[in-house]
Amino acid sequence: MSKLFQNYKRAAIEFVKAQGNYLFDADGKKYLDFSTGIGVTNLGFHPQVKKALEAQAERIWHSPNLYQNSLQEEVAEKLIGNRDYLAFFCNSGAEANEAAIKIARKATGKQEIITFKDSFHGRTFGSMSATGQDKIKEGFGEGVPHFHYAVFNDLDSVKKLVNAQTAAVMLELVQGESGVLPAKQDFVTALVDYCQENDLLLIIDEVQTGMGRTGKLYSFEHYGIEPDIFTLAKGLANGVPVGAMLAKAQLGSAFGPGSHGSTFGGNKLAMAASSAVLDIMTQAGFLEQAWENGNYLQDQLKKALANNLKVTQVRGLGYMIGIETTANLADLVQAARDKGLIVLTAGTNVIRLLPPLTLTKEELDQGLTILKEVFA
Ligand SMILES: *Cc1c(COP(=O)(O)O)cnc(C)c1O
């Protein structure tokens, strides 16, 4: 009998080894990974990340935030480039969103935040309250007040919720957990204009869409916008726990000494891994290749599944792809696993693919072949 809470529905296999873009279970069965954990090991089990972790472990693996941390400075610089942001490091996506919610409230002196139906922002009280899905909150009683939920891709529904106490609007540009739903360009453009005109901060949750997942370092680059605040986690350290909240430098005074913190935040191992991740992702042509390959995968799936009566839509952005289906999701996941491919689900009717950005053309075609068989 397991001594663990049964809060996860776990499959009956354990991955005990990984190499590049492949996983191995306890019986030695080999799987191609089109899930990257849940959008975490975006570079697969990359030797350069492993080397950075080993080298850092040799030096020092923890130092409290009472002292200088040049690794945090280094990662912040790589994340920010020539934009005008400041960074705060924590340990997860939920924590990054907590920091975003806190700085938005403090910087504006206002409390209300508009998020969206079917959004997902995390499981802590603040981030859970920001989340626009009742099933995530069931049984936990009253949440953090002052969140209001607009309809995704519908600006009028946002306007109806805005009042003098509104601090910010917060969204994912591709809703991940609820079914891989991309925001429409004209909605985002109009929302950004509306926020600027009405002095509302724009918070983009890039926890899943960030770190190359959509073929750009941040998904907001696709939309030609710059949020006031954005959050990162999943792919940031390729599997070492980390989160980050970045906000425009002019909001910096809201997070002065003693205002916010995290014991483990910006841990040296996590920062060493993040630094290596960013070096790899910013190599000339790397993200362009991922963008191209993601589009290839999406196009090939669209072609192959066009006449499939059980597939209603293939959609996504870059290497974040959803296959909406009327077939049983658990059966599809199991069928893929039997054939040596790991995939995810999202919402109630979507097979979600979050493959490593490092897939070779051969691996890509191997996964595609299995997916075609599974849906046939
Ligand atoms: C996964 C996810 C989170 C929560 O991240 P944790 O690290 O599990 O706390 C928040 N927002 C989005 C968009 C996510 O996909």
TrEMBL record:
Pyridoxal 5'-phosphate binds at G93, A94, F120, D205, E206, V207, Q208, T263. Pathway: Amino-acid biosynthesis; L-arginine biosynthesis; N(2)-acetyl-L-ornithine from L-glutamate: step 4/4. Its main location: cytoplasm. Binds 1 pyridoxal phosphate per subunit. Belongs to the class-III pyridoxal-phosphate-dependent aminotransferase family. ArgD subfamily. Homodimer. This is Acetylornithine aminotransferase. It comes from Streptococcus ratti FA-1 = DSM 20564.
